[in-house]
Write a structure and sequence with these properties.
The complex is a heterodimer of chains A (338) and B (483).
Chain A lengths: L3 H31 L10 H7 L3 H9 L11 H10 L7 H13 L7 H23 L1 H25 L4 H23 L10 H18 L3 H7 L6 H10 L7 H13 L5 H16 L7 H27 L3 H8 L2 H8 L1
Chain B lengths: L28 H8 L3 H18 L2 E6 L2 E6 L2 E9 H25 L4 H4 L5 H5 L21 E8 L5 E7 L6 H14 L3 H4 L8 H10 L11 E4 L8 H11 L2 E3 L4 E3 L5 E5 L2 E4 L2 E4 L3 H4 L15 H6 L4 E3 L10 H15 L6 E2 L3 E2 L3 H9 L4 E5 L9 E2 L5 H13 L4 E5 L5 E6 L2 E10 L1 E4 L3 E3 L4 E5 L13 E9 L5
Parallel strand pairs in B: 3-23, 5-13, 6-7, 6-11, 11-12
Antiparallel strand pairs in B: 1-2, 4-5, 4-20, 8-9, 9-10, 14-17, 15-16, 15-17, 18-19, 19-22, 20-21, 22-23
The chains are: A mainly alpha (338), B alpha+beta (483).
């Protein structure tokens, strides 16, 4: 038995933690590839923010707020926005902070050490985020440490928690977020522009796709399972469809489906997930050009959003109407009716 | 004592751990033997480890403000307060006796009111009580128990006598800190637990669970128990979630519950509505049920009183239990114990003078420079006169107030509250402290082994509240081999 409110908090806790880790990975692997880029290539940090769907917020907070700033914005500004800025709800600090706040309301459902682990992660990010924004070297260390601590949390959950409803909800949140992030990371490369030099272009593309794989810890697996040669068509196919790789979109959907099967009253959710999985399996991305791929990935994100909506309606906000009536005072109801 | 600060030379209070000659009391001897093995550097390192542990365990207060949430670490002093088992067992008996009598008293007030009819408790005191709930009249909860969880504040005076300062019968808090304090000590000073026979404290959550489970209206299967919290912005939220976790109970907010037309309380679960058997509420009476009490409350559950009255749910503490948590009622507790139990009180009450009684009022007016005067219906130290520290003008002003409204005032002698060695700048300095044990009653009694020791960290201060420079210590009840 689980409270609807607790289920929602648990789901979001898992999403926030996954998002924090993914952002850390993405920054680290992008830093890595930047070091290899020749002058003149415009692949840069701004792409990261665009892919995360945060460009408007960034513009608002960093560009418009300060007209003296050089354009394009500095690496440090972007790092501050992505890592430590609490005004960005998707910054690593915000994600960890929200995850901690949610955990606070869930302590009774989680393994006893869970709170301590997440609290320690929060304290670490709080104390080290500023340093990570200042220097690349420190950044790499701090982000890696965040990823490690997050792994310890996942290990704690899967190794010590009863694999009950709460566990399934955590897994659901993790996989919804992960699938979404994989589509966004794939999308990262659609915005790249290079100097018009054929040979250089191909070598660069390979670097960038390697970085994409790296950001998902997928490079080694890709080489083992697919090819030593990194090309866009194979990487896209691998990250969308390969059931053996735990961050591929299809694999995530499969996990969502199997979690849904173990939840009460989940027929609709199961159907929705299965449909989406079939649709993706049958869709061939190899013929798509960059723009069409971008549109397809956008579409996938919207479909994943539908799964999220279905979860919200079925479980989290199932009582919303009755809850509103019960929680509100007479005065408030009257106010609402005016 | 090598570590003792020079402040000890001027200490006139009873010290819990040190004799007047600054040698350890018998119960504290093993602790000091252990402290002697630690170099000043080592002690400082442990102190730092304590602070780091508290941060990692997230034992914090959260202060919410517009500029964000500020977490403050729970202020903890690593030098424990030590008491011999033989003394503690006597106190435990007194605590149980007191709670038993108070519960009989509350049940009597809401039913026959025999104690008033027999002239032992004045009707006008009840009439002036802010915590009497007319909505509870005629109800007898299971076992006749209203206050299932009581936090009793104890202090020790200069001559060594332990006094009850007050009985917290509404939503007493602090027990989670008692449990966490022991966890911290075990992590940072594991060696001393091998050389000293310290009684464990960690059965409290089990005892609390059993106390609550006994209130379940359903006898089959495991009862569904929920801890009802006002939410994450409440300063005691840490404790609410901690206790729910320790008991395997559900942590719920008012909006998670609803009362059906069948008078059953339900939880809104992802699997549909689920019946709740027992609610350990951590919100005040006034907010419990907007249908009956404060209609503007968003924290409570409409219909909860209806469900409780019809016996479909157990509530701890019962609504209305706070009637016995009152400064004037406090003065009557010795008579209450004699009246219901036909026993002499085991624990001492601080002598209290009720200004409504002529000869007691005369005594108060003649001795204002020696007494603390408290208004009956105020809490939190408002409107108090601390005679020895007041100016003659303030005393004259209070004398006029008392004469104008004698029923509203009671007075007590000032106590010289005991101290214990506390680590301040690397040395042990005397700091004043109190003790809050927690007492449980449903079909059985239970009292914690020790309790939460709160200590005023500022020199000379008597304020133990954590928001005002107070901290806490682990409380050790140690085996002393005496009966």
């Amino acid at each position: 038995m689980m409270l609807a409110r607790a289920a929602e908090n648990l789901y979001w806790m898992a999403r926030y933690l996954e998002r924090a880790e993914n952002t850390a990975r993405l920054i680290n692997s992008t830093t890595h590839v930047l070091l290899d880029l020749p002058l003149g290539a415009t692949f840069g940090w701004a792409n990261l923010i665009e892919v995360a769907g945060l460009d408007e917020r960034f513009q608002q907070l960093y560009v418009e707020a300060d007209t003296d700033r050089p354009s394009p914005p500095s690496e440090e500004a972007i790092m501050r926005f992505l890592i430590e800025d609490s005004r960005n709800p998707s910054s690593i600090f915000s994600c960890v902070q929200y995850a901690r706040e949610n955990t606070r309301t869930l302590r009774e459902m989680l393994p006893a050490e869970m709170w301590e682990r997440i609290n320690s992660l929060y304290l670490y990010v709080r104390d080290n985020a500023a340093g990570a924004c200042r220097s690349r070297r420190e950044r790499y260390m701090v982000l890696n440490h965040i990823i490690e601590q997050r792994h310890a949390i996942v290990g704690l959950v899967s190794g010590t928690m009863a694999h009950d409803t709460a566990y399934q909800i955590i897994k659901l949140g993790r996989n919804v977020e992960r699938a979404d992030m994989t589509t966004r990371i794939l999308d990262l490369n659609s915005a790249v522009e290079f100097p018009k030099d054929g040979v250089l272009h191909e070598a660069l593309m390979e670097r960038i796709w390697m970085s994409t794989l790296n950001s998902l810890s997928a490079y080694q697996t890709y080489r083992q399972l697919i090819s030593m040669h990194v090309c866009s068509r194979d990487v896209i196919d691998f990250l969308l469809h390969d059931m053996r790789f735990p961050r591929s979109v299809e694999h995530c959907l499969c996990e969502i489906e199997s979690c849904a099967k173990l939840l009460p009253k989940s027929k609709q959710l199961q159907q929705l997930t299965a449909q989406l999985r079939h649709k993706i399996a049958q869709h061939h991305t190899s013929e798509l050009d960059a723009l069409a791929l971008h549109e397809y990935l956008d579409h996938l994100q919207a479909e994943l959003g539908e799964i999220h909506n279905a979860l919200t309606q079925q479980y989290f906000h199932a009582y919303q109407d009755s809850a509103t009536v019960h929680a509100s005072t007479q005065a408030e109801i009257e106010f609402a009716q005016q | 004592m090598e570590l003792a600060s020079s402040e000890y030379l001027a200490n006139t209070a009873y010290d819990e751990l040190l004799q007047p000659d600054l040698l350890p009391r018998a119960a504290a001897q093993p602790l000091f033997d252990y402290l002697d093995t630690l170099s000043p550097d080592e002690l400082a390192a442990r102190r730092q480890a304590v602070d780091a542990t508290i941060m990692a365990m997230g034992i914090t207060f959260t202060i919410y403000s517009e500029s964000g949430n500020i977490d403050r670490a729970w202020p903890f002093d690593p030098i424990p307060r030590v008491m011999a088992r033989s003394e503690w067992e006597q106190i435990q008996k007194g605590l149980k006796q007191r709670l038993a009598a108070l519960n009989l008293f509350i049940n009597d007030l809401y039913n026959e009111q025999r104690i008033i009819k027999d002239g032992v408790f004045p009707a006008e005191v009840l009439a002036g009580s802010g915590n009497f709930r007319p909505q509870c009249v005629g109800i007898t909860p299971r076992f006749g128990v209203w206050a299932h969880i009581c936090g009793t504040d104890l202090v020790r005076d200069r001559d060594g006598t332990v006094y009850v300062l007050e009985d917290n019968l509404r939503v007493p808090s602090g027990v989670s800190y008692m449990l966490e304090n022991r966890q911290i000590m075990k992590r940072i000073f594991p060696e001393v637990f091998r050389t000293t026979n310290i009684l464990p404290v960690d059965d409290y959550p089990t005892q609390l669970y059993q106390t609550l489970a006994a209130l379940s209206p359903r006898t089959e299967g495991q009862p569904v128990i929920a801890v009802l919290t006002p939410g994450i912005y409440n300063s005691a939220y840490f404790e609410h979630s901690y206790l729910a976790q320790q008991m395997g109970a559900f942590l719920v907010e008012g909006s998670d519950l609803l009362v059906g037309s069948d008078d059953v309380v339900y939880m809104k679960s992802i699997d549909g509505l689920q019946q709740v058997d027992v609610i350990y509420r951590r919100i005040d009476d006034a907010f419990l049920d907007p249908e009956v009490f404060n209609p503007d409350s968003q924290l409570g559950v409409p219909g909860l009183m209806r469900a409780w009255r019809s016996g479909k749910v157990g509530i701890a503490n019962a609504p209305g239990a706070g009637v016995a948590d009152d400064k004037v009622v406090y003065a009557f507790v010795p008579q209450i114990i004699r009246y219901y139990l036909n026993e002499e009180p085991i624990l001492a009450n601080v002598p209290s003078y009720l200004c409504m009684v002529d000869e007691q009022r005369d005594y108060v007016l003649a001795n204002l420079d020696k007494l603390v005067v408290k208004p009956a219906n105020e809490s939190g130290g408002y409107g108090m006169l601390i005679g020895p520290r007041a100016t003659p003008e303030e005393r004259a002003e209070f004398a006029a107030l008392i004469r104008a409204n004698p029923r509203n005032y009671m007075a007590q002698p000032t106590l010289d509250i005991s101290t214990a060695p506390t680590l301040i700048d690397g040395r042990l300095a005397p700091r004043h402290l109190d003790l809050r044990p927690f007492v449980l009653q449903s079909d059985q009694f239970y009292a914690t082994t020790g309790g939460l020791t709160r200590v005023a960290l500022r020199q000379g201060s008597l304020v133990v509240n954590s928001s005002q420079g107070g901290g806490s210590k682990d409380t050790w009840i140690v085996e002393d081999g005496e009966q």
